[in-house]
Amino acid sequence: MKKQVILVTGASSGMGKDFALDLIKQGHIVYGAARRIDKMEDIQKAGGHALAMDITKESEVEAVVKAIIEEQGRIDVLVNNAGYAVYGAVETVSIEDARRQFEVNIFGLASITQKVLPYMREAKKGKIVNISSVGGKVYTPLGAWYHATKHALEGWSDCLRLELAPFNIDVVLIEPGVILTEFGDVMLDPMIARAKGTAYESMTNTVAKATKQVYFEGQGSPASVITRLVNKAIASQKPKTRYAGGRMAKPMILIRRYFSDRFFDRIIMSQVK
After folding, report:
1. Active-site annotation holder among 17, 115, 137, 150
2. Which helix (DSSP H) or strand (DSSP E) does residue 173 occupy?
3. Which residue out of 87, 146, 200, 215 is catalytically annotated?
4. How far is CA 206 from CA 83, 138, 172, 209, 268, in A?
5. Is the pLDDT of residue 1 over 70?
6. Who's near 59: CB < 8 A, 6+ residues apart?
7. Domain segments of the chain: what residues?
């Protein structure tokens, strides 16, 4: 496969770091971008590039795209991986925290995509790989804001795919299930703190217990499962519009597709009793 210039956001840990290191091994020119540049030394040692970027800051997003274009003259693939999860009851999550969730998971992702697209259109080719989640198809209690961003990303990506088809630019959604990353660490403590002394404390403690069992007792899939899907999408001449993988991804999507809301509600709530 021809060496491609690839930008991976959220490359300082978890799936993003795994994508970046694996794509470097395959001989691609890889740029990792994230706030914590000190966490990307291994990407640089492996032969990749590390750029500091807070995806919610327009000036930093512009600077990253400009730096890559100046060095390489093109960006062939953008992997939109940066994201995190705000969990808590709708009543207890502040609107400020909810806005931050959308700023990172949707508006930041949209901003960097807008800045890369003119170069892909000019080249008449390119790939946008958006890391969604099975959470873009299903829902869980206390995850309203996170699921809202991922449901939005699914629809946003579908529209973008139609708009970019005339320019030979592919838009691909990756829908991971339960993957062993920092996801659980980031969401748990703030979720528990928000619920303290509220009507949602009992439900929150139950969800926290179930989350710990999954993320801290090794019940999820390794990030490499999703890396294989990203590789498949990048290598394909005609990629699928969606790839799902990782623990529980495909079964949950099937249940959601073929059964009623009430049936799905019962399944989900049975897991947090």
Report:
1. 150
2. strand 169-176
3. 146
4. 24, 19, 35, 5, 12
5. no
6. none
7. 5-87+95-181+222-255
Superfamily of domain 5-87+95-181+222-255: NAD(P)-binding Rossmann-like Domain (3.40.50.720)
Is the separation of the CB atoms in 82 and 107 below 8 Å?
no
Catalytic-residue membership of 115: no
Confirm whether pTM is higher than 0.90: yes
Is 202 labeled as catalytic in the residue annotation? no
Look up 224 and say whether it is catalytic.
no
Is 80 exceeded by the pLDDT of residue 192?
yes
Q: What is the pLDDT of residues 163-178, one digit of tens each?
A: 999 999 999 999 999 9
131 Cβ contact list (under 8 Å, min separation 6): 10, 15, 79, 80, 81, 83, 174, 176, 226
Average predicted confidence (pLDDT) for the chain: 95
Q: What percent of the chain has pLDDT over 90?
A: 89
User: Looking at 13-27, 131-145, 209-223, which range is the least confident one?
Assistant: 209-223
Q: Which of 132, 133, 157, 221 is catalytic?
A: 132
Q: Is residue 232 among the annotated active site residues?
A: no
Q: Which two tokens stand for residue 46?
A: 């492996």
